[in-house]
Amino acid sequence: MRISPIHLKILAYTLDIEGYDSSAALKQCGFESNEAIDEAGEWVTVERFDRMMAAAIEATKDRSFGLVAGKSLALMRSGILTALAVSTSSLRQMLSDIHRFAPLSVPQSEVELMETRQGTRLVVQAVVKGGLSGHFRTEFAATTAVQMLRFVGASSTDIYHATFPYPQPPGQEQRYAATFGQRISFEQSECAITFNPALLDVKLPTHDPVAYMAARTRAESLLAAMKAGSDMADKVRAWLLSALPALPTVADTAAHLGMSERTFRRHLFTLGTTHADLTQECQRLMAERLLAEGKLPLKQIAQSLGFSSVHGFHRAFRRWSGLTPSAWREKQCLHSPLLDDVA
């Protein structure tokens, strides 16, 4: 999974604004400086963003730095979504726009509005899960959600309850209370902020119809361009999957799509991916399907994916999933009686 490099840039700005030196954290992620990050360039892997968050925690010596980052002025650099939020007509419209246009920077929105009989809440599903980085991103997104509520005029009594899916960080009670109020529960099923539903449709005095329409038009154009590119990516995936075990080159795929190699590479760059990424994605999809079916030995699966040896397949699959092919198959398919026959 990949995300826009704007997230690394914002985190680096946050470190600098809060009085830390972002250079060490950036170097751990392969960047010499914040200026070296092209926010409109190729999307980066979530694993790389994970390293950046871990480096930020190390630099600040603050396991709950997400509570700081979620309020930072660096968020004003987040481009089109900021322009929409500051000129929107209501919180409901703001959340609708975040849901619609989140794919411009992440695969899906990290904050979702849920209206049920049990209450109205903002549910946080961070792009990174687990470990200190997962806590960081969850607290960052939850703090940003509260900031949205504050933006539309929420008082402390309007924020009813905050829940987190992990144990309470020791010694952080006052910091959590200052951000989320007194009603906080840990080790719950989800991260969510329950709030006064009347806030959703309060008309905002900062609403600027002209500025909002300009920002919305730009966002729709960017989203349409991304969707067109995604359609092309789907065609590339279909072609690569049909070609296995052959591994078409960039030139082969460009010719299949009826475009020059240069134009094809430019389209992929716009999507934040590469031909090699899509090839490996297809190999992984096919590998997981064949492993789950449990009908073929590993050597035959490796050959079906274009690998010259089981060792090469083993190494690639471990890089993709963190598990060996055999371990993945055992974990996913223990119910299959065919496993013992093909292991």
Description of the molecule:
This protein has 16 helices and 7 strands. With 343 residues, it is α+β, with helices and mostly antiparallel strands. It has 2 domains: 2-201, H-NOX domain; 210-342, Homeodomain-like (Arc Repressor Mutant, subunit A, Orthogonal Bundle). Helix 10 (250-257) packs across helix 11 (261-271). It starts with a strand and ends with a helix.
Features:
single chain; 343 residues; alpha+beta; H-NOX domain; Arc Repressor Mutant, subunit A; 2 domains; five-stranded mixed β-sheet; two-stranded antiparallel sheet; 7 strands; globular; disordered C terminus
Summarize the structure.
With 343 residues, the chain is α+β, with helices and mostly antiparallel strands. The chain contains 16 helices and seven strands.
